[in-house]
Amino acid sequence: MRRLAMAILLTASTSVAQTASPQPNSQAPVQPGTISAESGLVVPAGTMVMLMLTSPILARTAKVGDGVYTQAAFPVAMKNQMAIPAAAYVLGQIDALIRPGWLSPHAQFQIHFTKIVFANGYTVEIGGPQKVTTGQPPAQAASAAPGTPPAPPDDVVAAVATPYVQVSAANDVLLDNGSQIEMVLQVPLRLNADNVAGAARVSSPSLFAHLKSATLCRPTFGTPGTPATVIPGTPGTPGTPPTVIPGGPGMPDTVIPGTPATPGTPDTIIPGTPGTPGVACPNPPVVTSNPKVQSYKESFQISAPVQVSGVQLSGGSYQVTWKGPAPSAQVDIFQNGNMIVSALARVVLLNRKPPADAPGTRTNSDGTVLLQSLRFAGQTFALYFDQGEI
Asked: Among 138, 172, 207, which residue terminates a domain?
């Protein structure tokens, strides 16, 4: 009897264990490397976003402080996940403007961007705190996730564009509807991945409206005019000579007078009408690269050894040179006329001039000190040697 009771007890225990064991596996395992829909999404510094103007910048009224209204012309994705869908609205503001002249047929802008509005209403302040207008809370993991870039210095312009436009002083539009410019993220852009995914589902980049040119110039054709009208005059008559009839003996000759010549009449000329000149419109504005590449040369000093691209720099004075204001440049570092290292760096625009040179460093987990940035006294730009970080 005791054996039978023990057998029943063991059978029941086995049945309970078999019933309970599937519960831990009822959910599918999370694949490594997958970005959760509720996680933060970071677009790294140095990312370029192609924008298209939806409102023109007019030559007569354009000024510093004016708003610039654009849409993303091409989507941006990070790790196979949508970050900025095409057609997302991006708001900017003009910081500097060089107008075209008769001897310099081009315009130059510096524009900083402040806000992105997604198709579902999700709104992000660029370089500022996140703002959500859809009632959904912003992601909390973006700033706390491991490996997230640190908060950028407050003198770095978060997102900029510096378009160079071929345009004459005769144009009434400096940047027309549909003009494409590149926005460069100079600091990491933190997004709520769930809100971006929702915006991507309702975005309709195919619904881009056909943007008509804002120019008011309309070409006109000239008129050729009419030629002069000539009415021929009448020719004159030559007249006839006198007729002489010889007289008889002792008789004088008889002279019959001829007829005098008559003058003709001159041609009558009726003047024609002059033609009218046509009006030709100047060529439309064209966004292009600056053909004049400027060279830069600055000096800096470090007090302790640092590394740049694997090369150790000891404390001392150095010179640095590069060409062009592009978002990235090849930088050469010299000491006493000898080149020490050549490294790729980002050229970052600042919103104020530092009062003194300011090298920035970063220490790795192994204790290695890296030269991260260089600020120069009185300049509104800096060099960053760590791509994608500020």
From this structure: 207
> What is the SS3 assignment for 239-256?
CCCCEEECCCCCCCCEEE
Is the residue at 173 inside a domain? yes
Amino acid at site 104: S
Q: How confident is the model at residue 319 (pLDDT cuts 50, 70, 90)?
A: very high
pLDDT for residue 378: 95
Q: Tell whether 60 and 182 lie within a shared domain.
A: yes
pTM: predicted TM-score of the whole model, two decimal places: 0.72
What phi and psi values does residue 130 have, to the nearest 5 degrees? -70, 145
Residue 28 has pLDDT above 70, yes or no: no
At residue 60's C-alpha, the angle toward residues 212 and 283, to 5°, is 50
Residue 262 belongs to a domain: no
Q: 209 pLDDT band (50/70/90 cuts)?
A: low
Distance CA 109, CA 185 (A): 17
Mean pLDDT for 31-54 is 72
Give the distance between the most distant pair of CA atoms in the chain. 203
| Confidence bin at 208 (pLDDT 50/70/90) | low
Count of residues for the chain?
390
Q: What is the DSSP string of 304-366?
A: S-EEETTEEE-SEEEEEEEE--SSEEEEEEEETTEEEEEEEEEEEEBSS--SS-EEEEEE-TT
> What span, in angstroms and rounded, lies between the C-alpha atoms of 345 and 331?
7
Residue span of the structural domain in which 355 resides:
293-384
Which of residues 173, 207, 241 is at a domain's end? 207
Backbone phi, then psi, for 353, in 5-degree steps?
-90, 125
